[in-house]
């Protein structure tokens, strides 16, 4: 696991975050060890595959608005990462994925049943840790988990008749991605004893950062010429997943000589390489990409505006640096 963060931190803060991320990693590994060999191996599969530990890092940063050494902070960081990892096991089953974080996915290595039950086990381990953090933390986590499930179901069934597909998409993103990132900031500030106003501000800003980050991933999936997004460019197109730029095209945002053809392609099976390449080229050149970037920047700027109301400490600068990084990812 890399403890590096993709944006600058003041040196003292960076040192503290690295040190406590090491404690998070140690607790993560101990949390997934068990008596059953298969369950232990499957549980460690994604923990040991690495990742940036983005959500735990947010917990640790937010704790600096209170007492960062408060006893509940590191366990809370472990809780959000276990929850996140559990959702990945379930996502891979639903998506029939074969690779996760550069390694064979659990459902591919074993089978769907093992992957689902491993995800359930990680949820249980998170709940065990959560019980020591008090009823309010349990309630926050339960409500976030409800949002995660709701977002997944809404994504699966699609928008109801009469519901704007773009609004539905943004709602799904807020529930599936924004909710747990919001809880990461909320846990860090709350368990460190920050004031209610600070907790509320960090929670709201982190949800916006989460949405902006997902939007930037959507843009990179189309715009990147390499696999900088972590996926082969155009993966969403090929899999029929409609993201923000595609919704904007279908809603008639922007105009170009090939609009009709692009809209036709976006409602077509794009597993054919030639059709996929044509759709990707047309989408990259479409004005909807600029509009998607503007929408993503708007979410990041709204988060920044909220963060600027917080006390002027290094942690605030770190959160604002994160807003800037999200915007810079897409050029």
TrEMBL record:
Single annotated GO MF: transferase activity
Keywords, alphabetical: Magnesium, Metal-binding, Transferase
E.C. numbers: 2.5.1.-
Protein name per UniProt: Polyprenyl synthetase family protein
Pfam families: polyprenyl_synt (PF00348)
Signal peptide positions (record): none
InterPro entries the UniProt entry points to: Isoprenoid_synthase_dom_sf, Polyprenyl_synt, Polyprenyl_synt_CS
Similarity-based family: Belongs to the FPP/GGPP synthase family.
Enzyme class: transferase
Cofactor list: Mg(2+)
